[in-house]
Amino acid sequence: MSAQHAIRGYHDGWSSRNLEAARAHLSPKVVFQDPINRFDGADALLAGLGGFLGIFKGYEMVSETYGPDGGVLLYDCATLASPKPLRCSEHFKVEGGRITAIDLVFDSGALKP
Asked: I need a surface site. Which of 9, 40, 58, 113 has the fewest CB within 10 A?
């Protein structure tokens, strides 16, 4: 499985609220980090995503870049927690066809009232 296939499969899975489809592209030991949370392992990450989906409204992809071992997605994410979409940059590391690391960057200050 290519890095692009793993990354888009994961992103398309969670953003369509299908966490089991997202899980199929994750290493069981995936490490996720964003400005607020750190999740170690697929179970912890998917539990966190499940909570996030309660405020998730949708996204608009801005840019996608892929290499043999990972990629970067840049997208605007609409949530109930912010009046304007959040610009998100998500970097992925892929080994053996599965995502092993995700670093998500966004302006967490935009979430404050």
From this structure: 113
Burial pattern 34-67, b for ≥16 Cβ within 10 A else e, equals beeeebeebeebbebbeeeeeebeebeeeeeebe
* Residues 78/19/42/77 CA torsion (nearest 10 deg): -10
Number of domains in the chain: 1
Question: Are β-strands 56-67 and 70-79 bridged in parallel, bridged antiparallel, or unpaired?
Answer: antiparallel
Residue span of the structural domain in which 29 resides: 3-111
Residue-level length of the chain: 113
pLDDT, tens only, 28-61: 999 999 998 999 999 999 999 999 999 999 999 9
